[in-house]
Amino acid sequence: MNQALIAALGVALLALGASGIAWSDRDHGRADPDRANLGAPTNARYQSECGGCHLAYPPGLLPAADWNQVMDTLAEHFGDDASLDPAVAAEIRSYLRANAADRGLRTRPGKATSTPGNQGPRRITQTRYFLRKHDEVPTRLVSGNPEIGSFSNCQACHVGAAKGDFDEEDVRIPGVGRWED
């Protein structure tokens, strides 16, 4: 190979490498578990059965053990009877476990922690991760806000929640506006 071709290939490889590094750095925010797009739930039965009453939370918000407990306690699901036909429950449990924070394609190392003390019922809003991410949001802006009501109403502030996108740069608190911590 002649020197000019080798030099051109070298420059091209450097440019490609630099663009890859720049892309990785730019993409890191999205790949970072603190800002991960967990993806919209993909199981139609889960969407209809669970999403019929509340946001069909992305399975990546809880580890498999916590989803098991949620499914084991459907008869008393946070004050409601959400019992399901056993076959439907088995399908949903399987989906949640396979895509849980500690198992799915969008695993979240270090974020897949159970609620403090490992005591149920498992609430996403009681996980260490959730509490740390929301520690600067005054409770009065959420539970005292009639457009939100509680921290479990994710989609009230996270405009991409239904798609599994909880990027804090896209948070809009009703009556307050864009939230920046």
Report on this model:
- This protein has about 180 residues and is mainly alpha-helical.
- The protein has two domains: about 30 residues; about 140 residues, no CATH class.
- The chain is about 35% helix and about 0% strand.
- The protein contains five helices and two strands, in the order H-H-H-H-H-E-E.
- Strands 1-2 form a two-stranded antiparallel sheet.
- The chain is globular.
- The termini are far apart.
- About 15% of the residues have low confidence.
The structure class reads mainly alpha
Give the total of domains: 2
H/E element string? Answer: HHHHHEE
Largest sheet: 2 strands, antiparallel
| Beta content | under 5%
Total strands: 2
Task: Quote the distance from N terminus to C terminus.
Answer: 56 Å
Overall pLDDT: 79
Shape: globular
Q: Give the strand line-up of the largest sheet.
A: 1-2
Number of helices: 5
Query: Which regions have little confidence, pLDDT < 50, spanning 5+ residues?
Result: 10-35
Q: Report the radius of gyration as a whole number of Å.
A: 21 Å
Descriptive keywords:
5 helices; 2% strand; two-stranded antiparallel sheet; mainly alpha; 2 domains; 181 residues
What's this model, at a glance?
By secondary structure, this protein is an all-alpha fold. Helix content is 35%, strand content 2%. The chain has a two-stranded antiparallel ribbon.
List the helices and strands and how they pair.
Blueprint lengths: L2 H29 L12 H6 L14 H9 L13 H13 L29 H6 L38 E2 L3 E2 L3
Antiparallel strand pairs: 1-2
Helix pairs in contact: 3-4
